[in-house]
Each structure stands twice: as structure tokens, then as C-alpha cells.
Amino acid sequence: MQTNEKVEIIRLATGPQEPINEYRRFAILVLGSFGCIVCSFSYAWNLISGTMQQRYDLTQRDLSTVVTVGLVVQYCVLPYAFLYDYLGPLPISILSTVYFALGTLLLALCFMDKVEGSVVRLCVFNAMMATGCALLDLTSCITVLSHFPTNRGPVTALLKTFTGLGSAIVACLYTGYFDSNAEKHFFFLFSMGIVVGILCIAFIRLPPYHLTQYEERSLSDEVKERRLATKAQYLRQEAPLRRFVLGFIILVVLIIFVPTQSALVSYLKLGKAPKVAFAIVTTVLTLLYLLVAAPLPFLNSSHIPIFNRAYSKRDARGDADSRDSTEPLGLEEAQIRKYHAPGEGQQRGNNAKGLPYDAAAVAETLDDERGAVASAELETEIDYLAPQYQGSFIHNLTTLEIWALWWTMFTVVGAEFVIIFNARFILVALQSAPVSESLSTMLTVLNGVGSAVGRLMMSFFEVWSQKRKAEDRVPITIALFFPTSSIIISIMLFLVLPAAALPLPYIVAALGNGFLAGVAILVTRTIFAKDPAKHYHFCFTASMLASLVFNRFLYGEWYTVQADKQARADKMCYGKKCVMMPVLRQEVRNDA
């Protein structure tokens, strides 16, 4: 396949550089993880949807309107991505704190009857909270990943798993501490959002080498060169493995404990005391995650006796040096650019992520450079990172690749949102019986845990596929097939399983949702070199449109019409016909 994309090889700066402070770097990771927990609050809708419906006598059309408005506003954050790329995370942190705190406070006042609730007001308040969640996700994920350029998989696993697991953690606290009281629940969210938001405002900053557009225009060439040179240290200095392992151990314990306690509460009809005990244990386990950034010297090591030592890129280069030559280091940072001439018919190399990068052209460039400077070792970004599209976001909008990613997000997310945000009502329809509060809470927990596991799976796939030699890497875009397959399987299971087994397809959908969340951040950060916030949040425009088309109009209207025909006092709809048409429609779309 012919390509006009340029091959850009960036040689890393040499010479001594100040080591990265791992305590500070992992403190930013921990803070970003707690920011992701706050981001997950918008996914805990099932906890209060039943209470909201009963308090305000809402129809399914009204509820889907509240949900959809929140989702549309939440995912319409591309303008904020432009602000992030121009000024950095500080203004986004401020806006996220204000939006989230105000939205949760107003919702709490609604449930206290201090503010009169209506569909319009609930839409506005929920949208404010959801926007705060989305902006905090932007601040946390994009910024933290910049501090770990060679550890995107493990970092995304920790961040995005907490985004998925956060709703499950909140569901546990909801039944334990707050006894399913919505107003106390929202005051808790308000307090946590304020604390995490203020900490993000104070401490979340980009690393020196990541220049904002404002800095690129305002800083002198000397300052920019000095800051860009620090990227070499971020690429060469490997983050201590022990801290990552500690974080994963805590995550795995939470992933096992939270659904187990939820199942016990739901099926054994446990009382208040066990619920409080479970909530306390969940709180302690979550706070233990702070140890990942603890100033303990023994954690600043990658040596773990039960594991074989990882074969790092530095080890690989050292072996190559011993076989090849004894060339000393000594080149300053430079860029080598080569353009493909139209009509040459050069083929894409079978490189990382299937990018349009000509392996022969790169090899020729490197050979020429070695011949020109025989006294220096050539160390480039490709030794650490796969080749990337070098175009700006505006340029990439004219390419097929970004629109293929957008279409996948649109088709899969539409089905996922219908299942996740309407789980209570779908189960009522399929089992033709009401859903208890404990079962509703368990569904929220299953969604959180399934989403967390899906995000872990995607992150491990990134590590497995990208921590290889450039010529052996597996295209990361292959990961897009998993969430598509999972949602197809989930819908099929919803249609054929008996009522007692209906949580199973919900788990499958949650796995796909979590995997897709990992795809959105990892694929965009891996294949696009510039404007990371814009590329990441462009995918969310697909989520925004999908929630409007499929959740509000396809599902919401159909369910309400069927419920009106039954004319039940609780405005519920019983029977598969209540959800059959929208579910089958989404099955056909994903198969296509």
C-alpha cells in the first residue's frame, strides 16, 4: 500500500541528565488513579435510578433523557481537549472540580427536597457532574501517561481499571455507609470530588519534555531544546517494577473482594452490620493503594525474586553493542526526516500497530547515519516507542485510520450504553419481575469489576504486543476486534439465557466496555504522536452520538411506548418485547 507519510526518526540527547524522582512520578500516578475513581461515579447510575424514578414519577423516556443528556455533555469534551493541548492540565483541573462539585451538590439538594426536581433540572445537574468526570479523566490519563512514556500498558491498567472499579467501590460504600440513601451518597461524592480536584490543581503537571502549544510559541529555542532533551531520561529510566506489582496486587484483591461481598449481600439478604464491615474493608483496601507512592527505597527496584528479570530495551541494546562495535556515545538530539516520493509504490513495513512506516526507508536512513558518524551509537525513539503518525489532529481528520477507529467506537458504545445504563429495566423486562435494590447494586458492582478486568486485559495486551523489537510487534489495532465480539456475544446471551443467568451477559458487556476504554486511550496514544488530548477525545464524540441515537431514541422511545401499552402503575414494562427490537437492532449493527 502506497503512503505519503514521512518517516521521522528522533535521536535522543546524550550526556548526563538528572534522574527522575520516582516518588514524585508515582505520587502523580496514585493521584491520577484516585481521579479515575471519581471519573467512574457517572457509571454508578443504577444505584439511584430507581429512587429517582419513584421520587419524581418518571417514565423510562424521562430517565433515558436524563442519562442521555449527561452522556452527550460528558463526551462532548473535544473543545476542552484543545484547551488542554494549548495550556496544559491546570485549567482543566479547575473546571473539572467546579463542574463535578456543583453537579453533585445540586443533585444532593434535589433528593433533600431543597431544590425542586424536574426532568430539565435533573438533566442539567447530571450533565454538570458528568462533565466534571470527563474533564478529570482528561487531566488524569493524558498527563500521567506522559510521565511514563515507556510504560503505557501498566499505567493504563492502573488508571483505567480504577475507572471501571470505582463504580463497584462506590456501590459497596453506598449500601454499607449510606444505607442506600441517595442524598448522603451525593454528599460523599461531592466531598471526594473536592479533595481530589484540589490535589489535581496543586500537583498534576506535564513533564518538562511535553511542551504545550503556548509554550512552543512563547519559550526561547534554548529553553525548548533543553526541555525536549529531558525526554531521553524519561525513555531510558525504567520505572521500578515493584511499585507496579504492588498496585496490581491491591487491584486484584479489590476485583475479587468487591463482587464477592456484593453477591453475598444480594443472595444471603445480609443485614446492616455485614454491609458496614464490607464497606470498611473496601475502604482500607482502596487506601492501601497509597503505598504505591510511599517513599520507601526498597520499592525503587525492578528485582522481584519470584519473577525472571525482564529483558529490557537497554539490555537488548547492550547485547547489540557487544556484537556490533565499541562506538562511544556522543550525539546531540537531531531529527532525520525522509519523505516517500509519490508513485514509488513502497510497501508498509509490518511494524508496530500497522502504521504506514517503510521499514526499508528507515533501515536505509539508519545505515546512512551510522556511516556518517562511525564514532557514535545511534539511539533513537524507535528503540523505545513504535513509529507514529506525525501529523496534527486537523491533518489526521482527513485520513481513513482515525475514522475507522471512530466508527468502531460508535457501533460498540451504543450497545454498551443501552445495557449498562438501563440494566435494572432490561432485567425487569426479561424476567417479568421487579429487581431488588441488592440485585441492582450487584449489577453495578459486576459492571465495575467487569469493566476493570476488561481494562486490565487491554493493558496487558499492549505490554505483550509492544514490548518487542520493532519488527516483531503486533499491530495494536487488532485489539478493536475484542469489544466488538464481546457485545455481540452479550446480546445473544441476553436473548437465550433464563432469568437467573442474566447477570452473565451483563458481565460480558462490561468486559467489552472496559476493553474498549483501554483501546481508546492506548491506541490513540500509540499511533498518533501529536495532540494527544484531541485524538483521545475525538473518540468520545462517537460515544456522544451513540448515546443520543441508541440510548435516547432507539431504546428509550421503544421501551416507553411498550410500557404505555401495558399501563402499569410503576411505569415498568414486562416481557421480552419491551427490549427485543432495540437489542436485535444493535446486534445486527455490530455484526455488520
From TrEMBL:
Domain Nodulin-like span(s) in chain numbering: 46-214
Topology term for the membrane: Multi-pass membrane protein
Main subcellular location: membrane
Keywords: Membrane, Transmembrane, Transmembrane helix
Keyword ATP-binding in annotation: no
Organism per entry: Leishmania shawi
GO cellular component: membrane
The protein, known as: Nodulin-like/Major Facilitator Superfamily
Gene3D superfamilies: MFS general substrate transporter like domains
Keyword field contains Transmembrane helix: yes
Compartments in which it is found: Membrane
Parts of the chain that traverse the membrane: 26-45, 66-84, 90-111, 123-145, 157-174, 186-206, 244-264, 276-298, 404-427, 439-458, 478-497, 504-523, 535-555
